[in-house]
Amino acid sequence: MNPSRLLALALACGAVATLSAKVVTRSVAYEHAGVKLEGYLAYDDAQVKPGVPAPGVVVFPEWWGLTAYPKERAEQLAQLGYVAFAADMYGAGVVTDDPKRAGELAGPFYGQPLMAERARAGLDQLLATGWVDAARVAAIGYCFGGSTVQALAYTGAPLAGVVSFHGGLIPVPAGAAATTRAKILVCHGAADGFISADELANFTRAMNEGKFDYQFISYAGAVHAFTNPRADEIARRAGIPIAYHPAADRRSWGHMRQFFDEIFGASR
């Protein structure tokens, strides 16, 4: 079903069926470059009103695919009053808990136009709902998704801002300073062993030389995947150096909210 019709129907039903606020969620089928995708739409039926465009946020997942975690983040954003859409990067139902397989799935996106193009397909789904204020749209991403929001921003996508949570710092393309519209917030684990000193220095230098509007916040003691409460379990099972850091998770979410207040011009 068309996203705008789906959302309108759900809103209408919600108005009749309940007087209490609740987060409404729906799967949304879409397609990009011949790949069938399935995203996850979330909104609060007491805060999103017909005829009153709301700010929107696209959520991009870790390299595991569209698992429960990015969907939960979309629901949290919905509770704050945003229309949130967790985008699919790999294909409907394609998820993994194996690092080798995750690397195989994510690898073809890095350094290729596909990363931003697939991400733009997700952004377009959010905009197609018809319930989002196109001037107040942001994207957030985790790990692989953090790299994805950077790539999307550099193309000049219509975003007010992007937030990268423990994302890889991808090279900034030549000319990106002239095309990028989005303000950038990077929430980085200071002890993240996946980010080299050279990558960090190159990113900061490119941001400064290009005069990007960016913020870079490092959280002491936080390693890769610090926002994911399941990170410790994943680390034990997969043998990779990631860990949940409750304080960094809480602080980075708060910094994201402050950032949204700035770029959207209203507190939520």
Written description of the protein model:
The protein has 268 residues and is of the alpha/beta class. The protein has a single domain (26-264), classed as Alpha/Beta hydrolase fold, catalytic domain (Rossmann fold, 3-Layer(aba) Sandwich). Helix content is 40%, strand content 22%. The protein has 9 helices and 8 strands. It has helices at residues 3-17, 68-79, 99-106, 113-128, 144-154, 176-179, 197-209, 231-238, 246-264; strands at residues 23-32, 35-44, 54-60, 83-86, 132-142, 161-165, 183-189, 214-219. Strands 1-2-4-3-5-6-7-8 form an 8-stranded mixed β-sheet, sandwiched between helices. The protein starts with a helix and ends with a helix. This is Dienelactone hydrolase family protein. Residues 47-263 form the Dienelactone hydrolase domain. Keywords: Hydrolase, Signal.
Please summarize what this structure is.
By secondary structure, this protein is of the alpha/beta class. Helices cover 40% and strands 22% of the residues.
Q: What structural keywords apply?
A:
8-stranded mixed sheet, globular, alpha/beta, 9 helices, single chain
Give the helices and strands, then pairings.
Blueprint: H1 3-17, E1 23-32, E2 35-44, E3 54-60, H2 68-79, E4 83-86, H3 99-106, H4 113-128, E5 132-142, H5 144-154, E6 161-165, H6 176-179, E7 183-189, H7 197-209, E8 214-219, H8 231-238, H9 246-264
Parallel strand pairs: 3-4, 3-5, 5-6, 6-7, 7-8
Antiparallel strand pairs: 1-2, 2-4
Helix pairs in contact: 4-5
